[in-house]
């Protein structure tokens, strides 16, 4: 089955067409600056020697982007048919424990979660509405970042706040990056040669956003992100865990508004805020090599807190077969993996430095020694393939 996977931001639309049989990515592209004076796009297919780049008319929206995309995939040169559309939806609250067809009831249920993800959900819904208009005959499926974490039990998902906040307003921990954690857990089971239902792992998705999850016998039991993707580890521009008292202090002592604080914690903190150089790990590693102390400290805090998160997740599961590294940093930054694993030796994780340097090449991504009681594995995430597979499961294979 060929699935068009769509990931909509408020001014962007990213897509791929995935053949679920082979996992191949048949076409892909990005529309950027939608709604502005100069929307742009870049689309690619393996059948074309070069990417197709261009501009859309001023103020062009997701609908025009989908028109352009539909023409591109159906064009004589690309000629890819589409059987269904899978949409990434960031927040499904407690309403969605798995992917589902986006009918009117499902759309209403996603709208009800908008206040929990005001930047993401309305954009995701815009993509679904536009796609329904552009592809009225195709099934439209929503795949939720939060769904994989819906197996968390109250001990893991409740905040120690007045219980009314949960009961009346749904304030609890939800977790994110579900498609990535689920995908790499499945791959880990394959690599370990065990059924997923007998595999327990800690997955660390380390990209610009970072989260980790504890997965016991294939079921997610805890994760580091919470009501929003701000909780947990240090990220590119997000602070992760801080004393909530800081927020009141910023308001009372510095006169900052809720919006100022929101922007600061989400966009100006993390690696960027600490280093005052960049949110990008590559840039910070380069700066560290050149002796920049702020970059060194930012990265040091990142790995220290990462190791603390993994160690605390380890306390939530009885056995652990492996620690998985994924995401741009997890897959590519050997130093982050080494520094984290050195701190986790007491958990039975023993790094093989040579294997770590080449990401366990030739050995299924395994970067721990043969004697390591808990394996460490580098696995390239593939959220698009996971969304395509879940979409296929919902619409049924042809
Ligand atoms: P993602 O959000 O998954 O695309 O990951 C983005 C993060 O991965 C950024 O901090 C990048 O600096 C980091 N990253 C990507 N490639 C490398 C690399 N080769 N070495 C270190 N960090 C990398």
UniProtKB/TrEMBL annotation:
It catalyses: acetate + ATP = acetyl phosphate + ADP. Substrate binds at residue 88. The active site is at residue 145. Mg(2+). Can also accept Mn(2+). It is an enzyme of class 2 (transferase). GO terms for molecular function: acetate kinase activity; ATP binding; magnesium ion binding. Keywords: ATP-binding, Cytoplasm, Kinase, Magnesium, Metal-binding, Nucleotide-binding, Transferase. Its EC number is 2.7.2.1. Its cofactor is Mg(2+); Mn(2+). GO terms for cellular component: cytosol. Signal peptide: none annotated. It is found in: Cytoplasm. GO terms for biological process: acetate metabolic process; acetyl-CoA biosynthetic process. ATP binds at residues 14, 205-209, 280-282, 328-332. The record marks 177, 238 as: Transition state stabilizer. Its main location: cytoplasm. Pfam families: Acetate_kinase. Belongs to the acetokinase family. Catalyzes the formation of acetyl phosphate from acetate and ATP. Can also catalyze the reverse reaction. This is Acetate kinase. The gene is ackA.
């Amino acid at each position: 089955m060929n699935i068009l996977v769509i990931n909509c931001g408020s001014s962007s639309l990213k897509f791929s067409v995935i053949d679920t049989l082979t996992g191949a990515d048949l076409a892909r592209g990005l529309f950027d600056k939608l709604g502005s004076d100069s929307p742009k796009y870049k689309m690619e297919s393996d059948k074309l020697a070069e990417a197709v780049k261009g501009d859309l008319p001023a103020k062009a929206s997701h609908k025009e982007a989908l028109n352009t995309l539909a023409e591109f995939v159906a064009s004589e040169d690309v000629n890819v048919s589409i059987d269904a559309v899978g949409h990434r939806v960031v927040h499904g609250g407690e309403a969605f424990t798995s992917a589902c067809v986006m009918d009117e009831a499902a759309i209403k249920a996603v709208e009800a979660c908008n206040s929990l993800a005001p930047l993401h959900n309305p954009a995701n819904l815009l993509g679904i509405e536009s796609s329904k208009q552009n592809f009225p005959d195709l099934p439209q499926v929503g795949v939720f970042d939060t769904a994989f974490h819906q197996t968390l039990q109250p001990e893991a998902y409740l905040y120690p706040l007045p219980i009314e906040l949960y009961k009346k307003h749904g304030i609890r921990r939800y977790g994110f990056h579900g498609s990535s954690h689920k995908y790499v857990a499945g791959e880990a089971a394959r690599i370990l040669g065990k059924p997923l239902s007998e595999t327990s792992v800690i997955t660390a998705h380390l990209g610009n956003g970072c989260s980790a999850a504890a997965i016991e016998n294939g079921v997610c039991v805890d994760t580091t992100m919470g009501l929003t993707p701000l909780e947990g580890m240090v990220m590119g521009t997000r602070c992760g865990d801080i004393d909530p008292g800081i927020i009141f202090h910023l308001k009372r002592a510095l006169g900052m508004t809720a919006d100022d604080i929101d922007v600061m914690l989400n966009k100006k903190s993390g690696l960027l805020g600490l280093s005052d150089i960049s949110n990008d790990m590559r840039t910070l590693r380069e700066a560290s090599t050149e002796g920049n102390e702020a970059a060194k400290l930012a990265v040091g805090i990142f790995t220290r807190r990462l190791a603390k998160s993994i160690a605390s997740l380890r306390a939530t599961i009885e056995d652990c077969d492996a620690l998985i590294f994924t995401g741009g940093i997890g897959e590519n930054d050997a130093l982050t993996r080494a520094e984290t694993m050195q701190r986790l030796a007491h958990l039975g994780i023993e790094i093989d430095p040579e294997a770590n340097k080449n990401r366990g090449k030739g050995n299924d991504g395994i970067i721990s020694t043969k004697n390591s009681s808990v394996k460490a594995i580098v696995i390239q995430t593939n959220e698009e393939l996971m969304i395509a597979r879940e979409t296929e499961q919902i619409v049924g294979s042809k």
